[in-house]
């Protein structure tokens, strides 16, 4: 008998993370003795750079084991502020930075401190799986805008302007984007900023966690660098993707001091300061950028490899992502096809069928607001990527 009726309504209303659910299912299939290639989780397959690990070891040897300030140790907050000024044109000081237990924690903090009951958060889709659930936990309302395949999965300024209501509180987006790999250009972000500037009570939540995985010639642009809306942009970033520090769990926000103070207040009652050793490690990350540059080159090579292979799969509609480490093909041509036993009705069923028949773990685009697509992580060795797509191609050929 289920005891769900004893749980809080907010938990019963919450959806399980599709990426984590698929990863769990793939482990179950692997435990049965199958060679599963897991391309479902967005996790770098590189090791954390040595200079970061050395700083962590030194922190342990030095006995840096005590509680830290809620918003983070001063040297890390200063290092982040300096990086944002130097690289992003964001004029913030250490007092504007709050370090949290991963960028996911940072995003959740901002939504909790800014969104009142029934206020609206405009989410530029396709979107990362947790955005809408975070808004739900804050008792807000998600307004999902669809970026079309034809427009590189990007939402237009006209769509945003049409969606704004008196209840709009935040416009939330990621660039480079998870799951699509799309990158909003400076021109596009300036057009969005011009709309936001007309609405003094609307904030922008810019998720820049994939900043260092950007293949465009222009490189990354931060919307918070635009003076007209600078104080109303909350920039969220972290160390997990660019520095291969997923398990270290260090993320941060950069925002107006009154917002940073509110996050400090909330975090002080929930988690307090982030792991002390991880903070010491992150504090030296920006002193050596060799690893992010090396990883960027590898991700670009893998992107090109995967896209070329996916274009060989009959029926797939493929676009070239400009950032992150995902491919996001439209697979709707396979909906309604069957292997004689199973009929594929949607992307959810296609992903499950590919896991069970070809032993490849992928994520349905439905989880990201794009039901015609599937997400393929390219953060894996070249040979695994090639084998996975060959398995996929072979399995899909059995469908009629």
Core attributes:
seven-stranded mixed sheet, three-stranded antiparallel sheet, Aspartate Aminotransferase, domain 2, Aspartate Aminotransferase, domain 1, 12% strand, globular, 400 residues, 13 helices, alpha/beta
Tell me what you see in this structure.
It is a single chain. By secondary structure, the protein is an alpha/beta fold. It is built from 13 helices and twelve strands. The protein has helices spanning 9-12, 18-31, 50-61, 74-88, 103-114, 130-137, 157-163, 186-197, 257-270, 276-282, 290-310, 347-357, 382-396, and strands at 37-38, 97-100, 120-125, 141-146, 168-174, 203-207, 233-238, 251-254, 326-327, 360-361, 363-364, 374-377. The strands form three sheets. Strands 2-8-7-6-5-3-4 form a seven-stranded mixed sheet, with helices on both faces. A three-stranded antiparallel sheet has the order 9-12-11. Strands 1-10 form a two-stranded parallel ribbon. Strand 3, helix 6 and strand 4 (141-146) form a beta-alpha-beta unit. Helix 3 (50-61) crosses helix 10, helix 5 packs parallel to helix 6 and helix 11 packs parallel to helix 13.
């Amino acid at each position: 008998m289920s005891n769900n009726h004893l749980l809080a309504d907010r938990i019963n209303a919450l959806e399980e993370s599709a990426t984590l659910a698929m990863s769990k299912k793939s482990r179950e299939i692997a435990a049965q003795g199958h060679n599963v290639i897991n391309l479902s989780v967005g996790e770098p397959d590189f090791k954390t750079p040595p200079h970061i690990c050395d700083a962590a070891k030194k922190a342990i040897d030095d006995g840096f084991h005590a509680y830290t300030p809620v918003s983070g140790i001063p040297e890390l907050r200063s290092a982040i502020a300096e990086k944002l000024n130097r690289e992003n044109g964001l004029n913030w000081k250490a007092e504007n930075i709050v370090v949290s237990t991963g960028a996911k924690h940072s995003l959740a903090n901002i939504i909790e401190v800014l969104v009142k009951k029934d206020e609206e958060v405009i989410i530029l889709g396709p979107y990362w799986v947790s955005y809408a659930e975070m808004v739900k936990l804050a008792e807000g309302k998600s307004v999902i805008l669809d970026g079309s395949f034809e427009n590189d999965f990007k939402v237009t300024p006209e769509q945003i302007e049409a969606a704004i209501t008196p209840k709009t509180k935040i416009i939330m987006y990621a660039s480079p984007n998870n799951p699509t790999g799309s990158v909003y250009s400076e021109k596009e972000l300036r057009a969005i900023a011009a709309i936001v500037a007309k609405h003094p009570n609307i904030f922008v939540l810019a998720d820049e966690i994939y900043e260092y995985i950007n293949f465009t010639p222009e490189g990354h642009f931060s919307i918070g660098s635009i003076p007209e809306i600078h104080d109303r942009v909350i920039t969220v970033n972290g160390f997990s993707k660019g520095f291969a520090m997923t398990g270290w769990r260090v993320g941060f926000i950069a925002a107006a001091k009154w917002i940073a103070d509110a996050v400090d207040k909330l975090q002080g009652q929930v988690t307090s300061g982030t792991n002390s050793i991880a903070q010491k490690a992150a504090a030296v990350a920006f002193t050596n950028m060799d690893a992010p540059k090396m990883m960027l080159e590898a991700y670009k090579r893998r992107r090109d490899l995967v896209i070329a292979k996916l274009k060989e799969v009959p029926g797939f509609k493929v676009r070239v992502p400009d950032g992150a480490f995902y491919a996001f093909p439209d697979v709707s041509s396979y909906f309604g096809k069957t292997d004689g036993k199973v009929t594929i009705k949607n992307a959810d069923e296609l992903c499950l069928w590919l896991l069970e028949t070809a032993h490849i773990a992928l994520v349905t685009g439905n989880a990201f607001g794009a039901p015609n697509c599937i997400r393929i992580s390219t953060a894996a060795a070249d040979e695994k990527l090639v084998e996975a797509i060959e398995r996929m191609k072979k399995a899909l050929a059995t469908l009629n």
